[in-house]
């Protein structure tokens, strides 16, 4: 994807700003920026990712410098800075997971999906990404599906079951 495509985005609809307002209302009037993470999450929920243009619209709405919003988007793994597949798989690559077959899990996923870390399958179904520690080292190796569903004690067999199940859900 070109950098222009990453920047481009249509104006956010009024319904999205109405959702922003509900989040802003949860904080004191002079602390609108407290809603920045919630607003970015709304953008991602509705568009699937957060473009630079969306960041600017959030910044303007909350009265923040665009760079401050960009810092939030780039700090947290959960915000997609470019379009991703329907299922985003984040494999933890930190040491405890890597000491318990995390690399095997990652390579098996790359093999099964035919993509490398950071790529999306041609059918738009899967995006493979790495993740920092998600605080579940005792359950390693772990991966997250769409930032919400944690899969623990992953093995090649469990990976196969998960991929088959997600593909079947599309059929
Ligand atoms: S290192 Fe993977 S969850 Fe902590």
State Rg: 18 Å
CATH superfamily of the largest domain: Glutaredoxin
Distance between the termini: 28 Å
Mean pLDDT score, rounded?
Answer: 92
Shape: elongated
CATH topology of the largest domain: Glutaredoxin
Helical fraction equals 40-55%
Total beta strands = 4
Task: Tally the structural domains.
Answer: 2
The order of strands across the largest sheet is: 2-1-3-4
List the helices and strands and how they pair.
Elements: H1 3-7, H2 14-24, H3 36-47, H4 52-62, H5 66-75, E1 87-92, H6 95-98, H7 102-113, E2 126-131, E3 143-145, E4 149-151, H8 156-170
Parallel strand pairs: 1-2
Antiparallel strand pairs: 1-3, 3-4
Helix pairs in contact: 2-3, 3-4, 4-5, 7-8
Q: Main traits of this protein?
A:
171 residues, alpha+beta, 8 helices, four-stranded mixed sheet, elongated, Arc Repressor Mutant, subunit A, disordered N terminus, 2 domains, single chain, binds FE2/S2 (inorganic) cluster, Glutaredoxin
């Amino acid at each position: 994807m070109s950098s222009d495509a990453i920047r481009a985005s249509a104006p956010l609809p009024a319904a999205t700003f109405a959702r922003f307002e509900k989040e802003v209302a949860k904080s004191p009037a002079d602390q609108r920026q407290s809603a920045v993470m919630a607003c970015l999450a709304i953008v991602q929920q509705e568009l699937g990712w957060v473009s630079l243009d969306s960041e600017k619209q959030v910044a303007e709405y909350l009265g923040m410098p665009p760079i401050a919003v960009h810092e939030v988007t780039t700090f947290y793994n959960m915000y997609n800075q470019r379009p991703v597949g329907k299922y985003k798989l984040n494999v933890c690559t930190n040491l405890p997971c890597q000491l318990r077959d995390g690399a095997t899990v990652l390579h098996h996923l790359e093999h099964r999906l035919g993509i490398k870390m950071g790529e999306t399958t041609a059918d738009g179904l899967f995006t493979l990404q790495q993740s920092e520690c998600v605080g579940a080292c005792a359950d390693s190796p772990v991966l997250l599906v769409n930032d919400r569903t944690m899969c623990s004690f992953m093995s090649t067999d469990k990976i196969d079951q998960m991929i088959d199940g997600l593909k079947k859900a599309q059929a």
